[in-house]
Prior knowledge:
CATH topology of the largest domain: Rossmann fold
Order of helices and strands: HHHHHEHEHEHEHEHEHEEHHHHHHHHHH
Structural class: alpha/beta
CATH architecture of the largest domain: 3-Layer(aba) Sandwich
Number of strands: 8
Shape: elongated
Distance between the termini: 19 Å
CATH superfamily of the largest domain: P-loop containing nucleotide triphosphate hydrolases
Bound molecules: guanosine-5'-diphosphate, magnesium ion
Radius of gyration: 29 Å
Number of helices: 21
CATH class of the largest domain: Alpha Beta
Strand order of the largest sheet: 3-2-4-1-5-6-7-8
Helix content: 55-70%
Amino acid sequence: MFNSLSERLDKIFRNLKGVGYLTEDNIKASMREIRMALLEADVNFKIVKNFITEVEKRATGAEVLKSLTPGQQVVKIVHEQLINLMDTEGFEFKVYNNRLTKVMMVGLQGSGKTTACAKLAALYRKKGIKPMMVACDVYRPAAIDQLKILGKQIDIPVVFTESKDVIQIANVALAQADKEFTNLLIFDTAGRLHIDETMMDEVARLKAHIRPDYIFFVADAMTGQDAVNVAREFYAKLSFDAVILTKLDGDARGGAALSIKAVTERPIAFVGIGEKISDLEIFYPERMASRILGMGDVLSLIEKAEEAMDIEAEAKLAKRMLKNQFNLNDFLKQLQSIKKMGPLDSIIRMIPGLGSKLPADLKIDDKALKHVEAIIQSMTDKERERPEIINGSRRMRISKGCGRSVMEINRLLRQFEDMKKMMKKMSTPQGMKQMEKLMGGMKE
Length: 444
Ligand SMILES: Nc1nc2c(ncn2[C@@H]2O[C@H](COP(=O)(O)OP(=O)(O)O)[C@@H](O)[C@H]2O)c(=O)[nH]1
Ligand SMILES: [Mg+2]
């Protein structure tokens, strides 16, 4: 899900993160691209407009421009605004095991209501709740059969009658729920291909009769903006409590997920992510936003980096790098701030795009870092400042001091030389360009 939106945003942010400073121009350009990406993902245009205005306002704020990682700060702002857009504002589906909670599923035909009934029942049974389902889609015999089959499959009782009157069916169900000490009674209702008055009236009548604790509007994410428009009409008639957004596993472009809350003022409560009974998840805006941005745990990474780094020292260091004055003392300091961020494997896992590709049992040994640290610490100040003076006898002495082999010391010095050469290249304008190309090309 959200694949193309994620990819587009990822590309935009990749460029942004590469630049060390932001200007009004490159912010404007990025905003333009984010706007396009959202519109292409079928997000409502009014929502896109507000979204961009808000992000731009925050991105051009002083705290961002002056920060250590301005490009990443913009990513962070977009992330936060996405969360705001989908905010559930404390909505919680509460079910108790000592009383009855009544739920109604409403929505168009094919949106996934019947499936959602069974998924919800199964999810809450796992939490020790006793559910029962009610077949109120009386127009299609197949619909009743479908619910009966699902009920049998997950061993949850289904109430159905010969009657075509939903009020009568509801009465039977309420009586049976009472007798069996049911905690969660889920009413499946009829949907049409399009909204029609008769259907709406019937659902409204059922609502007035059973007084449900929750009405869930079930929306098919694949239908994009249509889902949002339908939601608006259902909301006007039934003022449902929350949305169950289904089929997010398909190639839904995501527009519905991002627009429903803003248009209906009702949050998404659950998302359907597959055809299996277990494919229903409680909706968390924060997780959804991270998924859309495909960013692993980049936020905690930024936070950790900021905690560990001394901003002034970093600026000084950057200057030294540009002037090609970077020495082993600087290198040691860098190593130490990386170490402050935590164990290497957890840091690497947080790198967007990389984390999910690493095997779960991968362990990265922090020992190599410690050895390098030990080697540098066995050098004199002069040696650290001018590594080129480290001749054979000095290498022997350092080796004895830190307990690492001369070979390891040779390797470290060679790597350090290579690194310096690369920095020198990178600090030229052509070098910067090459770097950018390299970063952009890594994706494909
Ligand atoms: N891939 C996928 N299919 C779903 C999901 N939810 C429902 N479906 C499928 O969508 C179709 C219509 O679902 P149904 O529950 O009968 O819709 P209803 O007419 O609203 O009751 C069925 O084939 C379901 O298996 C979902 O989250 N993901
Ligand atoms: Mg159905």
